[in-house]
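We modelled the chain as a single entity of 206 amino acids. Its sequence is:
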Amino acid sequence: MKQGTAQAAQGDQTTMAQPRPLTQRQLQQRDRVLTATRQMLTENGYEGLQMRSLAEAAGVSLMTLYNRFGNQNDLILLALEDLLTDLGERADGSGSQGIELVIETFEVVAEQILTTPKYAKAMALLLFNAQPDSPIVATLLNDTVELSRTRIIAMQALGEVGEALDPATLARNLGVCGWSTILLWMKGLISDAEFRKEYRRAPLFV
């Protein structure tokens, strides 16, 4: 490859690897849109999220909403990822380690589910109806299972889990216990009063 061509290609890669950061105004706009998205899902569920109403609530034009944030499902996923990041920081901020950190994470998630049940049910329905390659499957299943696997490895280092056990298998079992509890709650087999205790106990069954 000629030197000029190589330098141009390298310049293109550098440009692609470093997207332009958002301005302060764009960050504030993003926060307003994601906050309004979560609020509408919390109050009205998935069916109650209308793009025109969302644009009005967030103080942006409908065209800006579509151009900058994509369609309805793109917005829901972005708001969900933002929420999961916040929940993860809350759990990590407890200072817990090993199994206590896993239990603390389940406690934080259970509290959020009970605080915003319509939101939680909307996310669960989207997940259950999604195709395996859907982004929400990656966010709510693949990423969380991988996080659990990492934490189980840490538990093994602390001597809380036997080294002979497979972290990937345990992580998947943890996901099964958690989502099974959510499904039973959605179907009315577990009451709101029982949910926090049952969901928090899920890691202890793995």
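As a brief sanity check on the tokenised model: Confidence is low (pLDDT under 50) at residues 1-10, 12-16. The two ends are 55 Å apart (CA to CA).
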